[in-house]
């Protein structure tokens, strides 16, 4: 997927509404094209509302749409992406989606396999981060790692054991293969904690738990703050 030729799309003459801006931000935050169904599940808005905003974004040139690959009977769904997406991110997302499908369809226990691989990933990320910045505070490392991966984590001041994940770097894949993708992400967090010498007991990920966010329950944050 090469760079788009010509000038950037002109900004719309009128400012976007808060609801439309939130939909555009959700699309921009994805390295892969995302379906209406996935956005509905994330935002908890009505399907018709999401579709209306997406159609308007396409009409103003801020987003584009394409058909998903055919997987069975019926017309494939539309997928939406920002014009500002990067080729490297799209390639990564495509590979992640393919691997998620393979694990979901061929592993005898997909969730267990996915979480185990996530733990290995988390261990490796701590090693890399330590060599870069030397940080060892569990709360800081977990939040910084999630931020690096574009989850837009936000610790709730009133509930320090809860981290709101307001972005998902693989939203469409998480929507299609939640048992795999979400298990990898949970395993990654547990792997980070274990590599830091902390217990990962009690750590849970609640996918699509509320409008605009998944929730990560992380008791270790309360202990270290």
Structural features:
225 residues, Arc Repressor Mutant, subunit A, alpha+beta, disordered N terminus, 52% helix, 2 domains, 4-stranded antiparallel beta sheet, Muramoyl-pentapeptide Carboxypeptidase, domain 2, 3-stranded antiparallel beta sheet
Kindly summarize this structure in a few lines.
The protein is α+β, with helices and mostly antiparallel strands and 225 residues long. The protein is built from nine helices and seven strands; from the N terminus they run H-E-H-H-E-E-H-H-H-E-E-H-H-E-E-H.
Number of strands: 7
What order do the strands of the largest sheet run in, or round the barrel if closed? 4-5-7-6
State the secondary-structure class: alpha+beta
**Shape label:** globular
CATH topology of the largest domain: Muramoyl-pentapeptide Carboxypeptidase, domain 2
- Alpha-carbon distance between the two ends: 45 Å
> What kind of sheet is the major sheet?
4 strands, antiparallel
Number of helices: 9
Q: Mean pLDDT score, rounded?
A: 81
Evaluate the radius of gyration: 18 Å
Q: What is the helical fraction, as a range of percent?
A: 40-55%
What is the CATH architecture descriptor of the largest domain?
2-Layer Sandwich
The CATH superfamily of the largest domain is known as Trafficking protein particle complex subunit 3
Sequence of secondary-structure elements? HEHHEEHHHEEHHEEH
Number of domains: 2
CATH class of the largest domain: Alpha Beta
Please mark out the parts with pLDDT under 50 across 5 or more consecutive residues, or reply none: 1-13
Strand composition percent? 15-25%
